[in-house]
Amino acid sequence: MFYRTHLLFVKDDNSIDKGLQEVLRVLNEELVKYGLEKEIGVLQTGSLGYISKGVHFVVYPDNLLYTKITQEDIPLIVQEHFLKGRPVKRLCESAKRDVEFAYSERIVLKNSGKIDPESIDEYIAVDGYQALGKAFEMGREATLQEIKKSNLRGRGGAGFPTGIKMEMTANQSEKQKYIVVNADEGESGTFKDRLIMEGDPHKLLEGMVIAGFVVRADTGYIYIRGEYSLCVQRLKIAIEQAHNYGLLGKNILGSGFDFDVIIKLGAGSYVCGEETALLNSLEGGRGNPRFKPPYPGERGLWNKPTVINNVETLTNIPAIVEKGGEWFAGIGTPESCGTKVYTILGEVNNPGLIEVPMGTTLREIISKYGGGLKADKKFKAALVGGAAGMFLPERLLDIKMDFENLSKESAVLGSGAILILSEDADILRILTSILKFFLHESCGKCSACRIGYKMLVTLLDKIVSGEGKSEDIDKMVEIANVMRVTSFCALGQSSIMPIGSIIKYFKGDFKRFTGE
Amino acid sequence: MQITINGKKIEAKSGQTIIEVARENGVYIPSLCYHKDLVPTGNCGVCVVKIDGMGPLKRACVTPAEDGMSITTDSVELRKIRRELLSLILLAHDVKCPTCDQNGKCELQELINYMDIPEPKYEPIFKKTAIDNFSPSIVKDTNKCIHCGRCIAVCNDIQEVHALCVEGRGFESKVTTAFGESLANSPCVNCGQCTVYCPVGALKEKSQIEEVQTALFDPSKIVVVQEAPAVRAALGEEFGLDPKEVTTGKMYAALRRLGFDKIFDTNFAADLTIMEEGSELIQRVKEGGTLPLITSCSPGWVKFVETYFPEFLPNVSSCKSPQQMFGAMVKTYFAKQETIDPKDIVSVSVMPCTAKKFEAQRPEMNSSGYRDVDYVLTVREFIKMIKGAKIDFKNLPEEQADQLMGQYTGAGTIFGATGGVMEAAIRTAYALLSGKELANLDVIPVRGMSGIKEASLDIPLKDSSVVLTVNVAVAHGLGNAKKLLEDVRDGKKSYHFIEIMACPGGCVGGGGQPYGSDLADRARRGESLYKEDKNCELRTSHTNPMIKKIYAEFLGEPLSHTSHKYLHTDYKERDQLTGKQD
């Protein structure tokens, strides 16, 4: 069926909450009323990258974005825009971000917001599962070589080369191996994996099957944050559809390769995003981290060789296989290839999800994609890399956002969350909530993290209440430093990041309280 | 493989961790949670060392040594970090040194001293939680816990009891049982291994010193004491004596000075146990009873089998443990012989064991109408009493036990080591079945520290040409017991007789033995018992004249009606979550 106009409704938790189903019901009634149901196609898609826009949809080919729509608005929009061709200016804006987001440069989010994530046919129509077929044709070794050539590095935070990780597991002689997807996105202000999975679940499955094929794993687990109900729902649909099409299960595409995907729900612990804690949790145990070595690649899930990757990492794989490692390596910077998905939050005009090439500067991300600061306020700091990240000052605005350039400033890409603070932000209040978050999320296994965060919060409370002295700041730094070197996993090791960066760049904020 | 520690080249074996290599070569790396008997948890972080080219710092306890590694274990920087870390650990520890059982033995205390921390850097900020003292055996004071994880490691990995776990997160997390119940309402078998490995006294036995002392001061009470074989094997370590020698004579002397009225010996009851259990084995073999017969001396093991392997309850010997047999005989035979009203007798035992406290309180242990055993002291409590009375143990004279229930054979004394009950039983069963003594009384295959031991013995039956081949097995540590039972259950193994002791090493490794002992200590204590056995004039239970006497004067014969009344018991399945019987 051909439609003259397509309406792409974003179905995410926010729009469902704001009455998406009611809006769609009224829309359908109105379209029928005017006999437009055969001319106007209504689709439900994943996120466009906007947040807090309520029920919103894009009109194609007009490329207009209606936001915060209620069912009362629908009759007017149908009559004016779809019947008479006069957009309701009051309710819509140009979907300009769509252009700025440069879909042509997108890899991970290429289909997000464009196809119906609940339809495998739409995914196939945009060349989905092509890469899988190509991988089967090329064979394991050649596929692995493409991934290695691409120089893809893990997007979960540590940035370990994905190809080398896969090679390590591929070389293990054990018969039973696993693919595990870390979809336990728990970092405050980070929701990129959720929107990737909601928008294009088949891409993740395709990435998993290719990874499984390369390392000879027959089972993949998606360890997903329990609250991500829409992701789970869409992944379940996708798994079922892939099964029906012979893209999962026994003898996929006649290749003789078997692969199945199992979804496991996390129970809400931040530390389970740490890969070894995740494995413990997946096995049914307490989500405490394990010591490495042995690395999961050698002994992971149930002590079997396991490739464990972030959602974003695996969703890069199909494009790499399809277009070649060299193509991917040509994007971004020499040491950080490809694109990066960020969530921009805080005091910017356009908070949301973006995908840009590695090496894009912080300034560009804020001004071009984030739409600049709200009310033209002065920039104060950007918390880059999630709660365990660093507060970067104005003089680092031109820093290239990639693994190597950030590490020069001891900063990290982390989860890809960027929180923008304006001149009136209270940085210590943010630090308090970060430290309280980690205090709550520490598993309690190792002394440094278990007691360290308690002590850091105690000292910071003292400082913020005006009772503190400058030596309390020194104590905080000492504790954070000991946590950095004696904590068992990154949760404790990284307390120094936010604290150290405030001391380094915003010491005045501390001194305001200690009065020196 | 060669590594460099502090500039010195050292040979290392593949698979060794850095701390293992260091300790083997006399390099001390401070550590708190690490214990060489246990799978390291890496929890405390005190043992961090600097490895060239390997990022910030690494935990020596869990990092494997690799060829060419260059490691620095001590420096101004490392000391600063360890001091800061220990200051943090200290602020979350309920510092109660003067009243703490581990005072002077506490590993945290030692480390704080070693690291020269002049005074606590931070105010304590922990939230006090109630002490769990509902169990008859173990007291758990979470406020002292430093989260080293040793108790969980020994409970889960070695004993496979799985009574302990961590509940809650981060600073609020604590070591507890499932659903935060008291140990008294948990599958805890009271073995007390957690108390031996706890570095800070967060886990200890439930003391009965006060009750015993009250009885000792009461002129109307006759206080009778028995001491388990393994007690004499561990006392020497505490008082600067040769730890390879047992201290039987001094032990009696100390008890006499503490004011006990009658000093007997559990070893006597061990001989008695062999008479009953050996006869039970012969009866089961001859009459086609349930086999394998499994020993019942170890109360931790008994609770374990009731909880986790109830299908084996018909296999467990109906014999009470030596402690309880002894207790029953004190309130009956001894009372009769000495014409004392049993109500005036206080029956005390000194045990290497915390589970004996639980056993003494089992409701069915009162066939005489009185509690078989009134109070149980661990070796640690006994040591405390000796030290509390300022008794110069080292220079005590060698004294004798009192007559009637104080004489024992070498068979009785080896009960304290893994395989000892089996060896003693083989000696007597052989004699009873063949009519001759075993030519070589040393049954070497069942000795030693290997987890599961097996042996096969041909016994020529008397007045017959039949040779009976008896297959036996010995397991110590409940994890090994579990493995053995599973093999028997699955038909992979078949035996006539099995000895199981809850604790690794047997009673010499009991949960009531001195703090800080390790597997090597246990092995050495066992050897000292075998040495005492070797030096005994009589080495088989059935030749003990006092045993002959008790059968002649009171019990009749093994498995008699009287024996059954006082010396035997039965078992009941327990709930796996609460450890309770219906």
Describe the structure.
The complex is a heterodimer of chains A (516) and B (582). Chain A has 516 residues and is an alpha/beta fold. Chain A has 22 helices and 14 strands. In chain A, the strands form three sheets. Chain A has a five-stranded mixed β-sheet with strand order 2-1-3-4-5, with no helix packed on it. In chain A, a hairpin with a 3-residue loop joins strand 3 and strand 4 (64-66). In chain A, helix 7 (140-150) packs across helix 10 and helix 21 (496-505) packs across helix 22 (507-514). Chain A is globular and about 75 Å long. Chain B has 582 residues and is an alpha/beta fold. In chain B, the strands form five sheets. A five-stranded mixed β-sheet of chain B has the order 2-1-5-3-4, with helices on one face. Chain B has a four-stranded parallel β-sheet with strand order 11-10-13-14, sandwiched between helices. A four-stranded mixed β-sheet of chain B has the order 12-17-16-15. In chain B, strand 13 (345-351), helix 12 and strand 14 (375-378) form a beta-alpha-beta unit. In chain B, helix 9 (266-287) packs across helix 11 (322-337) and helix 9 (266-287) crosses helix 15. The mean pLDDT of chain B is 96. At the A-B interface, helix 17, helix 18 and helix 19 of A face helix 2 of B.
